[in-house]
């Protein structure tokens, strides 16, 4: 499996533009998120201007990616999740705050997600009780790992090159057991010179949680398959994906999406 624990950039157009009304909006008839159980993102359509972060007072839109605070609406307007395992995100020192999708996870699951700079990795007392989400020949899937053998998940955040370097050369990470997920196709809007199986970090986290449910929780919940329990991890991600799609569809012929991205990424005719 290939993963890119990638980056999110809310470009100037997205940060400052106003989404059109439903009558004007050329929306996707079939969104790839239609089958997901994601809460309504309608509140985000009402956020037409920037607001001040309640903690650091920076002018932001949607959320503060420095303080991980909801901006422009109430915290109760944003989904809240409790995850089945604690997650520590190790962010590469050169990864810009405004480009990281892990902010979504921290805001939606604040009690279960912690974020650290790669220069401030915690000293783990029991590293043998950790899993590192990263692909490789020595990585195992969850169905090969007993649930009682780990307590926490580590995730590296950065470009593929940055993340790979961290896992290989960082003393605290290089000997941690690796876990991987089944191949998935990314919906990420930022261009990457990799295959479509390289995921944004929030996508990788979501699919890990989904596989965790199927592997360990579905039996106790009397479910035969995944029930959408962790779909709201993609709440912001879904909104930004559909925002970009509708923005370029509405301005077809006037504004062109990067030609470096894979052909057909913008769904003009769907």
TrEMBL record:
One of its GO terms (biological process) is tRNA processing. GO terms for cellular component: nucleus. It is an enzyme of class 2 (transferase). GO terms for molecular function: tRNA-uridine aminocarboxypropyltransferase activity. It comes from the Eukaryota. Its main location: nucleus. Pfam families: DTW. It catalyses: a uridine in tRNA + S-adenosyl-L-methionine = a 3-[(3S)-3-amino-3-carboxypropyl]uridine in tRNA + S-methyl-5'-thioadenosine + H(+). Residues 60-249 form the DTW domain. The keyword Nucleus applies. It is found in: Nucleus. Residues 12-31 are annotated as: Disordered. Residues 12-28 have a biased composition (Basic and acidic residues). InterPro entries: DTW (IPR005636), tRNA_Mod/Golgi_Maint (IPR051521). Its EC number is 2.5.1.25. Keywords: Nucleus, S-adenosyl-L-methionine, Transferase, tRNA processing. Catalyzes the formation of 3-(3-amino-3-carboxypropyl)uridine (acp3U) at position 20 in the D-loop of several cytoplasmic tRNAs (acp3U(20)). Belongs to the TDD superfamily. DTWD1 family. This is tRNA-uridine aminocarboxypropyltransferase 1. It comes from Rhizophagus irregularis. The lineage of its organism: Eukaryota, Fungi, Fungi incertae sedis, Mucoromycota, Glomeromycotina.
């Amino acid at each position: 499996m290939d993963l890119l624990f990638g980056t999110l950039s809310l470009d100037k157009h997205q940060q400052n533009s106003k989404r059109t009304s439903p009558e004007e909006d050329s929306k996707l008839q079939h969104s790839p998120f239609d089958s997901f159980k994601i809460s309504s993102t309608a509140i985000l359509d009402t956020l037409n201007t920037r607001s001040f972060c309640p903690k650091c007072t920076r002018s932001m839109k949607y959320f503060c990616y420095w303080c991980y605070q909801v901006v422009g609406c109430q915290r109760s307007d944003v989904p809240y999740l409790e995850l089945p395992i604690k997650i520590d995100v190790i962010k590469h020192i050169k990864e810009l705050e405004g480009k990281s999708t892990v902010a979504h996870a921290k805001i939606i699951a604040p009690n279960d997600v912690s974020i650290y700079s790669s220069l401030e990795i915690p000293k783990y007392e029991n590293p043998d009780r950790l899993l590192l989400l990263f692909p490789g020949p020595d990585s195992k899937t969850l169905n090969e790992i007993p649930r009682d053998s780990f307590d926490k998940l580590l995730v590296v955040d950065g470009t593929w090159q940055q993340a790979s370097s961290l896992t290989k050369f960082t003393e605290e990470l290089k000997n941690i057991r690796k876990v991987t997920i089944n191949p998935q196709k990314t919906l990420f809007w930022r261009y990457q010179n990799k295959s479509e199986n390289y995921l944004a970090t929030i996508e990788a986290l979501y699919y890990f949680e989904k596989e965790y449910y199927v592997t360990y929780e579905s039996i106790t919940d009397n479910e035969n398959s995944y029930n959408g329990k962790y779909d709201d991890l993609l709440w912001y991600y879904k909104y930004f994906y559909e925002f970009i799609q509708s923005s370029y569809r509405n301005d077809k012929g006037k504004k062109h999406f990067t030609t470096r991205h894979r052909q057909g990424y913008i769904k003009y005719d769907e």
